[in-house]
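Lecture 7 notes: from sequence to structure.
We start with the chain below.
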Amino acid sequence: MQNKLGKIDLTARNIPRRYDSTYTDIIDGYLLVYQPLSSKGISLLNKASAFLYKTVDDKRTLGDIYLIARTKEPKLRFIQIVKIFNDFLASEIIFFDNPKLSIRRIKIRSISVWLHITNQCNLRCTYCYVNKSTEKMDIKILNKALNKIFDSAIERRIDKIQFKFSGGEALLELSLIIYFIKKAKILGNKYKIRTNFIILTNGILINEKIAYFLKNNNIRPAISLDGLGKYNDQTRIFPNGMGSFKFVKKGINNLKKAGVHFSITVVITSKNIDGIPNLTRYLLSNNINFVFSFFRDNPESSEKLECDKNKLIDVLKKTYKIIHDNVPKYSIVNNILDKVKFKPHYNTCGVGTNYLIIRQDGEIASCQMTLEKSIGSIEDDDLIDTIIKGNFIKPERLTIESISSCLSCQWKFICTGGCPLLTFQQKNKYDASSPYCKVYKALIPEVLKIEAKRLIKYELNIFKQTN
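Predicted structure tokens for the same chain:
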């Protein structure tokens, strides 16, 4: 069977089939169809298309379906049926003969570099994983790191590098960041390697001048904010114990005034979870993009802040209802459920493959959460080879297909077991299902509904044309 049905011999055994892992739901009169093995995203079927999709039972031929349609949906002409089934094929929600979907192992063409440039910070957030000190990256280490990154990228034929500046508080070393970005752009242009830059910051130092600098240099800040008022100020505090919310809000307002593209990073803990719905409403009403992360315990954290799983499900369902009712034009499905990405993949993150952490002293770590564990240094010949050899996840080359408890789950290729460090922390092994498995299974369908609502609200004309 070709990708296009063309002329159909109704006497032949042309049997359309559904994929076993397909998820379906009804939203606003449309049939939502989502195939986790496909990168095509959600399909929304109108009444006629939904009728035809539901006739697919792995037994009926297209001829059988045509005869049923003549009785049940007499307005459907044969040529329309052929077109709709071609759309089904293109959307990868049906197949003929043998299943065609599989996850391709794509050659790595991009890397993400996390530059931990300072241990200094103007806050003392109670859950932070960084041991605060006066240490910072000097210009010699910065230059060496930059050159070695590009050397490795050229050797591996990498065509894109994303740089993230972190600390401590990265903006305390803004002059160092400016110097690095200028040199990185020159090297990127010289070797035809695309670059982009993100600063991870608490936002307190963002005055009008810095905001316009970020705008003019196309640098995207990611601001940490855990709630409105007291919900932020219980954990994100100054050394004297004072809360930081009003200062962060001022920084956010400066970014908005300058027209800077930025996002808010929210760490959901047991202390701020009750404020997540109102924070979400505030972010949506101000058209601010945001990302939800779940708290991860770490040796530097002064408190145990992990949420009760049932409460997490309950509060996020309420939060998702707010998003559903105020859905933005842009897609946020990959932002609102910790570590879940709605495109098929084998591993949750780039640890051990294309994710590189460079500390302030020039040492290399696999993950920012294992900052204290060096696996090499910028003196190594090939930094990408260093992160591959230093991968702490065992067994080697572990993917979601190696976790037996996940194999029967329809969501395995979009959840991929969640954060491997968290799994090891709580289960003492990496090849196990995520501690948040229950949360993911309960909330993935809710996230899909949000994306369906967005498509219906802002892109409905597309489906009128295709269906």
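Points to note: Residues 463-467 have pLDDT under 50 and may be disordered. The first strand starts at residue 16 and ends at 18.
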